[in-house]
């Protein structure tokens, strides 16, 4: 297993028996059990899972060893079956190639070899029933000792030595894998089309308001993965295929060599509830989607869908029109001045202003297939979510917090509002069901970016109900009708209660 882990580090990290079996366990675990594990172990869930895989494999291998002392063929067979299962887990991953066989096969061969060697060696140390005539020459005696095979102590030493070698191999492999995951040394060129200066946000003056730009470390994260993929940027590429004039592929270096666009864009998850946290704003740096599609040639395409595939075969659908209607759709390589963090899609992801993430923001993207919605369906489409899912006009109260206690006096009600593609004109606040009052607006970064707002409030003692609604630049008023996130995004007015004392 240790040798396989090291070989995986040198070839395909995900084909390491530990990772391959771990991922398969995750995939086969029923959702309720998965959620229980995430609640129980939090961010340690990954370590607990991988640790369990190692312990279970060691126990099973020990069992195979015990069996092998009496029936070597059976013991070795059990070990080969174990390695075979890990190999199967590795090669059945989407996108797996012939190289994925290497670690598992190496585990089978080296495991079987080592076990046979240990068993044979131990068999030869079995105490001789008839020591035979004792020679009186010391030299001859020591020679006889050797031909009788090694001592039990020798077998123990050999086992300890093997364990040490294995630990060394595994540690080296793990160290190499971690090193390969470090992406800090990816440096991106400047934008040919920069975003321009970024205004100072209200967070400087209105305590409790969401900052105008979300730091990458605080950006919400939504995806189906329990373990982040480890993408080797040197072998990664992005392919455009399907209904195009010519299939094209881009390496990371080829993408960074193209003219890059930089934009401040607010992303939103369709699962965001009214007043929820699944929304974030960042400065994205990337290649315009249109430039990439033009390289593939889409003049005569009959496609209406871009089917994006990530490194693990996860698919997201995006309407082709968003690449061509002039909005700043891009394949982003950078976020807030650095390469994409691993959890936000390193090395590349799609960013489309105005569409919920599940129909646009494919992280760890490797392929864009031009096709039709009739011909092929993406992951969430198969699960009955909407295919055409523009982000609804929405606003959120950040301060004061719902159900909080405040001291009577001069308070400030503040928050954010978004209407990507159109822009936010104004926000209105309703206190205790009275008439809507206009809030003071923060800087207008661009129409694809959220806007901060606040309203000074002289709070009298008692329980108060605060609500907000956004009005977009085209006059659209945030909808009051209550919708659940499924299937095309939540709607409704957020109203919170606060106690003033
Ligand atoms: N490969 C992949 N990309 C994905 C997802 C996913 O599960 N897998 N989730 C999508 C969803 S639902 C959203 S809202 C955005 C969230 O992006 P973030 O995690 O960077 O905020 O990523 C999208 N891209
Ligand atoms: Mo989402």
TrEMBL record:
<feature type="domain" description="Oxidoreductase molybdopterin-binding">
    <location>
        <begin position="228"/>
        <end position="379"/>
    </location>
</feature>
<keyword id="KW-0812">Transmembrane</keyword>
<feature type="transmembrane region" description="Helical">
    <location>
        <begin position="47"/>
        <end position="67"/>
    </location>
</feature>
<feature type="transmembrane region" description="Helical">
    <location>
        <begin position="155"/>
        <end position="177"/>
    </location>
</feature>
<keyword id="KW-0472">Membrane</keyword>
<feature type="transmembrane region" description="Helical">
    <location>
        <begin position="98"/>
        <end position="119"/>
    </location>
</feature>
<dbReference type="InterPro" id="IPR014756">
    <property type="entry name" value="Ig_E-set"/>
</dbReference>
<dbReference type="InterPro" id="IPR036374">
    <property type="entry name" value="OxRdtase_Mopterin-bd_sf"/>
</dbReference>
<feature type="transmembrane region" description="Helical">
    <location>
        <begin position="74"/>
        <end position="92"/>
    </location>
</feature>
<protein>
    <submittedName>
        <fullName>Molybdopterin-dependent oxidoreductase</fullName>
    </submittedName>
</protein>
<keyword id="KW-1133">Transmembrane helix</keyword>
<dbReference type="InterPro" id="IPR000572">
    <property type="entry name" value="OxRdtase_Mopterin-bd_dom"/>
</dbReference>
<dbReference type="Pfam" id="PF00174">
    <property type="entry name" value="Oxidored_molyb"/>
</dbReference>
């Amino acid at each position: 297993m240790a040798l396989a882990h090291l070989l995986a580090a040198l070839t395909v990290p995900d084909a390491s028996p530990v990772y391959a079996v771990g991922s398969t366990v995750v995939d086969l675990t029923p959702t309720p059990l998965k959620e229980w594990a995430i609640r129980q172990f939090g961010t340690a869930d990954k370590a607990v899972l991988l640790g369990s895989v190692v312990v279970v494999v060691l126990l099973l291998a020990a069992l195979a060893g015990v069996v092998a002392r009496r029936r070597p063929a059976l013991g070795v067979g059990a070990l080969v079956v174990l390695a075979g299962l890990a190999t199967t887990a590795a090669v059945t991953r989407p996108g797996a190639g012939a190289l994925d066989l290497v670690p598992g096969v190496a585990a089978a061969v080296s495991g079987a070899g080592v076990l046979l060697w240990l068993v044979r060696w131990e068999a030869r140390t079995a105490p001789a029933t008839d020591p035979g005539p004792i020679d009186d020459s010391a030299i001859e005696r020591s020679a006889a000792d050797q031909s009788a095979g090694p001592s039990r102590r020798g077998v123990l030493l050999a086992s300890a030595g093997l364990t040490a070698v294995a630990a060394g191999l595994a540690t080296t492999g793990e160290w190499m894998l971690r090193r390969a995951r470090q992406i800090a040394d990816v440096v991106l060129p400047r934008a040919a089309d920069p975003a321009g200066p970024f205004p100072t946000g209200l967070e400087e003056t209105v305590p409790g308001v969401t900052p105008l730009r979300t730091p990458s470390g605080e950006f919400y994260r939504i995806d189906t993965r329990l373990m982040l993929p480890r993408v080797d940027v040197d072998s990664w590429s992005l392919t455009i295929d399907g209904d195009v004039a010519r299939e094209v592929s881009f390496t990371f270096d080829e993408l960074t060599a193209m003219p890059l666009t930089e934009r401040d864009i607010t992303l939103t998850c369709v699962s965001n509830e009214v007043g929820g946290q699944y929304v974030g704003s960042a400065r994205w740096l990337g290649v315009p989607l249109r430039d990439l599609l033009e390289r593939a040639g889409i003049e005569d395409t009959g496609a209406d869908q871009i089917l994006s595939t990530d490194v693990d075969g996860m698919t997201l659908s995006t309407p082709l029109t968003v690449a061509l209607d002039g909005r700043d759709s891009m394949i982003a390589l950078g976020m807030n001045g650095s390469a994409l963090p691993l959890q936000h899609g390193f090395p590349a992801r799609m960013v489309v202003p105005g569409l919920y993430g599940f129909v646009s923001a494919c992280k760890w993207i490797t392929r864009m297939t031009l096709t039709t919605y009739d011909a092929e369906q993406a992951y969430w489409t198969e699960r009955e979510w909407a295919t055409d899912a523009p982000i609804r006009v929405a606003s959120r109260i950040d301060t004061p917090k719902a159900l909080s206690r405040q001291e009577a006096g001069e308070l400030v009600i503040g928050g954010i509002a978004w209407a990507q593609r159109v822009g936010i004109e104004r926000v209105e606040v309703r206190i205790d069901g009275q008439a809507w009052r206009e809030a003071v607006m923060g800087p207008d970064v661009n129409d694809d970016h959220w806007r901060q707002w606040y309203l000074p409030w002289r709070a009298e003692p008692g329980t108060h109900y605060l609500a907000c609604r956004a009005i977009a630049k085209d006059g659209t008023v945030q909808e009051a009708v209550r919708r659940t996130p499924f299937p095309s995004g939540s709607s409704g007015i957020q109203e919170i209660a606060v106690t003033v004392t």
